[in-house]
Structure formats: C-alpha cells, structure tokens
Design goal:
Layout (H helix, E strand, L loop, with lengths): L10 E2 L5 E8 L5 H29 L4 H36 L3 E8 L3 E6 L6 H8 L2 H5 L5 E5 L5 E5 L4 E5 L4 E5 L2 H12 L8
Helix pairs in contact: 1-2
Length: about 200
Amino acid sequence: MKSEEYTTRVKQCDDGKYRWTYEVNLYRNPTILIDLLKIVVGCLALPYLLIDGVIVIKDFGMDKEWFVKGQLNALIGFGGIILFMVVLSVICYYWWAASLKGRYIASFVMDETGIEHHLQKRSNLVMAAVLVSNNPSTIAAASVMSWKSEFRTVRRVIPVSRCDLIMVNELLSKNRIYVLPQDYEFILYYITNHCPRLKE
C-alpha cells in the first residue's frame, strides 16, 4: 500500500506505518459526549470544593445545626447549577453533532514509536479536538488539529471495545483511538506491546 493512503481497515504502508480512518457516529457513540460532561462537571466541581473547604475551615466550631443547614443549601444550589450545565451541554453537543451531520471522521497513523490522531481540517471540528483529547493544553490551543501519543511515555491503555475505542493515556494527556472491530484486537495488542511503562 502506498504511503499516505488511508482506508477504513488498518493497512501497513510502504513506509512501514499503519494507517486507517474511522467515522464516529456522534448520535450512537457516546464517548465524546461523556468526555464533554466530565470536563463540565470537573470544571464546576473543583472551584466549589475549594470554596466550600475554605468555608468549612472558617466556620469550624460554630453551631452545628446552622452549619449543616448551610452545607445542605449550598449543595442543593450547586446541584442545580450542575444539572443546568449538564442539560445545556447535552443540547450544545447534539447541535454540534447535527452541524457535522452526525459524524466525526478521524485518521490515524501508527508506528513503533507512537500513534497519531488527525482531524479533518474543518473549523467545526476544532471542538472535536478539544473533546476527544480531554487535554487542557488542547483547550488552550484549540487550533491544534492533530496530536501524537509517544508509546514510551504512555502510562495506561484502556480498551472500550463496545465503542470501538482504545484510550491511550499519558501523564498529562489522553488520546482516543477508534478502530473497526475487525482490527481492534490487533491494534490493542500492538499498542500494549510497544508501551514499556504501562501500569498493571
């Protein structure tokens, strides 16, 4: 197979690298939506926990009944904010999915040193780069349309076969690798056998 040639099935090219493409059904495959909700909830929960921790320290030793009531009211208020943002995020996700006609297409390049995840160069796929990577540095530079996981720095590989997904996690970044069921076991085996620092 010629270099730079992509098919939906995994193929080894003349340069020794494996290449393939994958089309994610944004309505049926929940992985990107789940990543979005994790980011939203995490971004809201962290400041709440920090502020609440300060309040607990400040009010320590005060009337117990008043303290418990205040904590419950704060938790109910925070829960309402979380619920609102989750609903809003789901609405925005399906609006974004509809703008892509329900599909997200990525291409992958893999060799013995690592694996690359490339997005189509379309402006409305910038959000996909943010969500799929689950990487704060990608959020800060959302114009990045591709990234690479170096096998020597990968700490965890998490298979999610029901979604045709392999999560390749380094210390500060997470890559999402999609592959058809016919090639899933081969890619999973290849990745895990080229990552010397995997945690048991």
